Amino acid sequence: MKHTLSILVENKPGVLARVAGLFSRRGYNIESLAVNTTESPNISRITLVVDGDEKVLEQITKQLYKLIVVLKVNDYTDTPVVERELALIRVNSDSNTRRAIIDLVEIFRASIVDVSEKDLVIEVTGDSEKIDAFIKNLEPYGIKEMVRTGKIVMARGMRLNNK
Amino acid sequence: MEMTVAQAIVRFLEEEGVKIVFGYPGGAVITFYDALYNSSIKHVLVRHEQGAAHAADGYARASGKLGVCIATSGPGATNLVTGLATAFMDSSPVLAITGQVRTSALGKDSFQEADTTGITMPITKHNYLVKNPEEVLRVFKEAIFIATTGRKGPVLIDIPADIFAAKINYQYPKDVNLPGFKPTFEPHPLQIKKAVNLIKESKRPVIFAGGGIIASEASEELIKFAEKINAPVVTSLMGKGAIPEDHPLYCGFIGMHGAAYANFTINKSDLIIAIGVRFSDRSTGKIDTFAPEAKIIHIDIDPAEIGENTTPDVPIVGDAKITLQRLYNEVDPKENPEWWKQINEWKEKYPLRYRRKENVIQPQYVIEKIYEITKGEAIIVTEVGQNQMWAAQYYKVKKPRQFITSGGLGTMGFGLPAAIGAKLARPNDIVIDIAGDGSIQMNIQELATAVTEKLPIKIFILNNSCLGMVRQWQELFYNKRYACTLFDFHPDFVKLAEAYSAYGRRVEKVEEVESAIEWALEKNDAPVIIDFMVEREENVFPMVPAGGSIDKMMID
Ligand SMILES: Cc1ncc(C[n+]2csc(CCOP(=O)(O)OP(=O)(O)O)c2C)c(N)n1
Predict the structure, then answer these.
(1) Bridge pairing between strands A152-155 and A70-75
(2) Contact A52, A86 (CB under 8 A)
(3) Interface contact flag, B304 A25, Cβ < 8 Å
(4) What is the rounded distance in angstroms from the CA atom of residue B43 to the CA atom of residue B41?
(5) Of A6, B45, B112, B149, whose CB has the highest number of CB atoms within 10 Å?
(6) Residues in chain A closer than 8 A to B129 (CB atoms)
(7) Contact call for residues A87 and A35 (beta carbons, < 8 A)
(8) CB-CB: which of B180, B302, B308 is closest to A68?
(9) Average pLDDT of B207-215?
(10) Cβ < 6 Å from ligand 1: which residues?
(11) For residue B3, pLDDT beyond 60
């Protein structure tokens, strides 16, 4: 089962290496990772997706808490969240296919951020499923290049106070 | 007062009560050594940085205080690695101070540069690279706090050469503010209640005590609690000394080479009260068949230890000492007569024993004699291998911090430097390094350190001319194909001792064993090596083959 962990850490050099090192050392695979600062400049948030059952997750969480730089670990898996990922996709496109792709872009509320004779670069945000679906729809045209960020999440409604 | 960072560190360490440090100088730490020159802190010059780390570790284990080691950048720092990993696995509070290349040279593959914090990240509790002189004292304060609080462990501080030389105003940092480090000492009352109920219901309880008892100085509380519920106490290897081994409730140490009755006791119990242990594979054998009928109460200061290898019925996060006090206050006295009848049968039927042979020196016999002659009062430090297991089996220790061994990492070469640290921590105690002929050669150079410091430690080599423990596995599981485990050549250990200005003696006859030990104990001004020529093919029994169930032992 996939779990989305949101980890608050001190914003210091080497922190990501500590967290990532812990995962690799113990044989847990990180499937997606996003890191940046938060509203407080001393604190960063690492959002990551990892696969594992409850026991594995419990152990990962405890091991994370052993790192002095880790302040808070939240498992957002069972919490209602707003979830976003961003992708940039360069897709083949000529005058024949352009109209169809623009329609798709509109349906998915994506946007075209660059245009050339042979291709378009499209930006899309949303949850992973939406991005997967969008990619699927673009595939027939030929995707030339694609980058996806890691997933970021935020709890809906009031702030989380579990654990 | 303005001073260099190096001077400030020395002053800070003095204020923290550090009396002794172990180290080896070099370019990147030369300013620091200059500051140490006029300090009240004693610096012990080892002959290899690995020795410094083990000596600091041995000092910490013998005294319960922080052990400090120092190395220069690059090769000096990398030489600490095995020692830090050893301290990490056994939760020993060690502070390592390493020099680093100048900040302007960092990250350029400069001369003697190594990514010390990167290399030591997985083998330290925490580490720091200090780039700002103003933060040095805060970092030191935090580092010592982290190393010695909660589950103890090594912390490393890497300091660039120019930072050592920078000027700061000394101000003793009083407070530590570590929002991400808040160990839980006080056990949850509800969990204590649950534990008390399980204890009440149990018919065959056993207490499984580990190194955590020794680290938290909880031995007295353990004994009181065990006596109140009349439960047998088994230990892990690291828990040796948690309860005096002549105490009627003591039931041996469990695991791969534990006593048969100890393994039976835990494996047939219906309730394990585990305190400060981590259920390591060497203790439990195959985990699926470990104590199948037992409920488990697992008490540990480190939440991550709970549930790592077993799933306890009652997990309790807390300090061993405090938790044992709480449990003691809540439990009702118990007797468990049926259980004791069974245990005593096992004890009688399967005692720790070995077949006596005539005219050969058997290693078990040597340990027994050391035990008798020192009346169980010596601090026993071990190397790794058969020597370690025989020492654990046949030397019955009385007190915590009396049996010092590399349990988690199993580091050959640990014993001699750790014995140096232990002797400096406790100069009035007899300190003995039980060694193998293989292990002793891994840090033999530290003999020079012991001689320089006039430390009369006793190095008793159980010389079987082979890497005994590996040879034993080859004998039992690899059809006696002794690949690279038999030594054709050894230095003359007696002459080697003499070359170092230590005492040396070889013992080839059984009759000489006792007098040689007595002779060694009389030497008070320098280390002693006794080279006991023991039988090559002696094995350690009982033995649970790796990955086997601990109640299925090869008895002999
Ligand atoms: C640094 C290191 N290298 C290798 C090993 C693997 N090992 C475990 S026991 C052992 C044999 C030790 O031989 P010796 O010191 O002579 O002791 P004995 O078993 O003969 O008592 C070896 C090689 C180890 N534990 N540590």
Answers:
(1) unpaired
(2) no
(3) no
(4) 6
(5) A6
(6) 13-14
(7) no
(8) B180
(9) 98
(10) B 383-387, 410-413, 436-439, 462, 464, 466-470
(11) yes
Distance CA B239, CA B209 (A): 6
Q: Distance from the CA of B538 to the center of ligand 1, in angstroms?
A: 15
Average pLDDT, chain B: 97
Closest atom of ligand 1 to CA, residue B410: 25
Give the torsion sign (CA, B100, B102, B108, B109): negative
The average pLDDT across B442-449 equals: 98
* ipTM of the predicted assembly exceeds 0.95: no
**pLDDT given at position A163:** 41
Q: Which of A68, A70, A73 to substitute to test the interface with B, most B CBs within 10 Å? A: A68
Nearest residue, CB atoms, A68 vs list B181, B302, B304: B181
One-letter amino acid for residue B139 of the chain? V
Which pLDDT belongs to residue B556? 80
> CB contacts < 8 Å between A and B, how many?
42
Q: Is the pLDDT at B211 greater than 90, yes or no?
A: yes
* Per-residue confidence (pLDDT) for residue B218, from 0 to 100: 98
Q: Do the beta carbons of residue B279 and residue B287 sit within 8 Å?
A: yes
**A70 and chain B: CB distance < 8 Å anywhere?**
yes
CA-to-CA distance for B320 and B261, rounded, in angstroms? Answer: 25
Give me the mean pLDDT over the B358-381 stretch. Answer: 97
Query: Could you tell me which of B486, B504, B487 has the C-alpha nearest to residue B495?
Result: B504
E-only strand ranges, A16-94:
30-37, 43-51, 70-75, 81-92
The pTM is what? 0.96
In angstroms, the separation between the Cα of residue B180 and the nearest Cα of chain A is 5
Residue range B160-189, pLDDT digits in tens: 999 999 999 999 998 999 999 999 999 999
Closest-CA distance of chain A to residue B132, Å = 13
**Cα torsion angle, B116, B121, B124, B129, sign:** positive
